[in-house]
Amino acid sequence: MGEQQVPAARVPMVEESEATGRTAELYDLIKTRTGLPFVPDMFRLVSSRPDLMEVLITGYTGVFSDGVLPRATREMISAWSSKVNGCPYCVGTHNWFLSQFGGSEELTQAIATSDKPGDLPLDERTVALMELVTQVCTGAYRVTDEEWDRVAGFGWTNEEMLEAVFTAGLFAFINRLVDGFGLGSSVTRSRISRQSDAAADADADADAAADATPDPDTAA
Predict the structure, then answer these.
(1) Contact predicate 32/25, CB 8 Å
(2) Can you state the angle between helices 88-100 and 71-84, rounded to 10 degrees?
(3) Which residues are CB-contacts of 83 (< 8 A; sequence separation ≥ 6)?
(4) Which of 8, 112, 173, 202 lies 20 to 30 Å (CA to CA) from residue 127?
(5) Consecutive 10-residue runs of the chain (220 residues): their mean pLDDT?
(6) Residue 136 contacts residue 117 (beta carbons within 8 Å)
(7) Nearest to 29 by CA among 45, 43, 49, 18
(8) Alpha-carbon distance 153 to 189, whole Å?
(9) CA quadruple 75, 90, 141, 123: dihedral, nearest 10
(10) In this structure, are residues 167 and 77 in contact, taking their beta carbons and an 8 Å threshold?
């Protein structure tokens, strides 16, 4: 198992065991909404300001609760927006979520390493949506009516495109919180993305235990 990294930031991060009052209530809400057994460090960046943490929770859970786009598509947009915005910490987090909602290893690897949407293993229709997402990340003021109509011409509804652009915009905000407060530079990977390591370690331990168990047919 790799060395455990301890996240650090330029702002105070309240430990779960030390949370009280509204912060403790919001921590419980985060774990309920995300289905995770811990509070992701991204939320803890604003844990000393419960009023701001509540805004962050509302935006995040609004995107990742019921939506018009499949959850995998929203996670793909989140991971790709983070890649375009230069936030590998968030790329790893949302690639992990993408893999949990059916995204292939080929896709998550491509998101982590590609430079443009056309390099992603996606159909032409989805590439068009991701090109719009990329424009939102790199210069939203350059999105024209003609570009909007071009993407809509691939069969995306206005409601789906609204959700895609909102998700990209939310992650422009989240990426800047993570990097501006120093979390993204204090650890190379989030605790969420390292869950796959823990699962792999557990499988390896189980295999080792099985190998060490004597075969009843050959044991003396």
Answers:
(1) no
(2) 160
(3) 91, 111, 112, 114
(4) 173
(5) 61 96 97 94 96 96 93 98 96 95 97 97 98 97 97 98 98 96 81 66 46 47
(6) no
(7) 43
(8) 38
(9) -40
(10) yes
- Any idea what the Cα angle at residue 183 is, between residues 180 and 188, rounded to 5°? 125
* Amino acid symbol at 23: T
User: CA-CA distance, 170 to 81, in Å (whole number)?
Assistant: 9
- Could you please report the per-residue DSSP string of the chain? -PPPPPP--SS----GGG--HHHHHHHHHHHHHH--SS--HHHHTTTT-HHHHHHHHHHHHHHHSS-SS-HHHHHHHHHHHHHHTT-HHHHHHHHHHHHHTT--HHHHHHHHH-SSGGGSS--HHHHHHHHHHHHHHHHGGG--HHHHHHHHTTT--HHHHHHHHHHHHHHHHHHHHHHHTTHHHH-SS-TTTTHHHHHHHHHHHHHHHHHHSPPTTT--
**Residue whose structure tokens are 């190379």:** 188
pTM for the predicted model, two decimal places: 0.85
| Cβ pair 156, 148 in contact under 8 A | no
Specify the residue for token string 């030390």.
18
- Alpha-carbon distance of 133 to 145, in angstroms, equals 15
